[in-house]
Amino acid sequence: MFDNTTWAFVGLVLFFAVLAYYGVFGMVGRMLDKRAEAVNAELGEAQRLRKEAEALLAEYQQKRIVAEQDAAEIIAHAEAEAKRMTADAEVALKELIEHRTRTVEAKIAHAEAAAVAEVRAVAIDMAIAASKHLMTDRVQGQVATDLITKGVDEVKARFG
């Protein structure tokens, strides 16, 4: 009549009855309730932390946007400054080239004038020497001396 399965079932029922008598089910329930409260508290903390993280993310995204705008402004300003400096450098270089050109041209003009003056002086000296030579060969005496002196004075006055 009673087989092993029946006795196992009766043992199981008695085991649960003893557990119920000592309040084990209540303790397990309270422990599960405490664990559920702890899990709920952790979920609440996780949600709060998530909201803080989202707020921080939004703040940093806004700061990134502002920083990108500032960087773009700085780059634009730097490019404009570089263009201005390039233009200034071109103007300064052009002025320097013009100044040096004028200086060289002035030196050349001065050298030309000196060369012309030197050539004139040499030509005058040669003309005087030739005149003296011709006069001494062809004209003699006091007349020759007077003519030479007068000719030399005229040549000096004209070319000097």
Brief digest:
The chain has helices at residues 4-21, 24-138, 141-159. The mean pLDDT is 88. The chain contains three helices and no strands.
Provide a descriptive summary of the structure in words.
With 160 residues, this protein is an all-alpha fold. It has one domain (4-159). The protein is built from three helices and no strands. It has helices at 4-21, 24-138, 141-159. Helix 2 packs antiparallel against helix 3 (141-159). The radius of gyration is 61 Å and the shape is rod-shaped. The mean pLDDT is 88.
Q: Give start-end ranges of low-pLDDT stretches.
A: none
The helicity comes to over 70%
Average residue-wise pLDDT: 88
Largest sheet: none
**Principal-axis shape:** rod-shaped
Tell me the distance between the termini. Answer: 165 Å
What is the total domain count?
1
Q: Which structural class should the secondary elements be placed in? A: mainly alpha
Question: What percentage of amino acids are in beta strands?
Answer: under 5%
**What's the gyration radius in Å?**
61 Å
Number of helices: 3
H-E string: HHH
Number of strands: 0
Present the secondary structure layout.
Blueprint: H1 4-21, H2 24-138, H3 141-159
List keywords for this structure.
160 residues; mainly alpha; rod-shaped; 3 helices
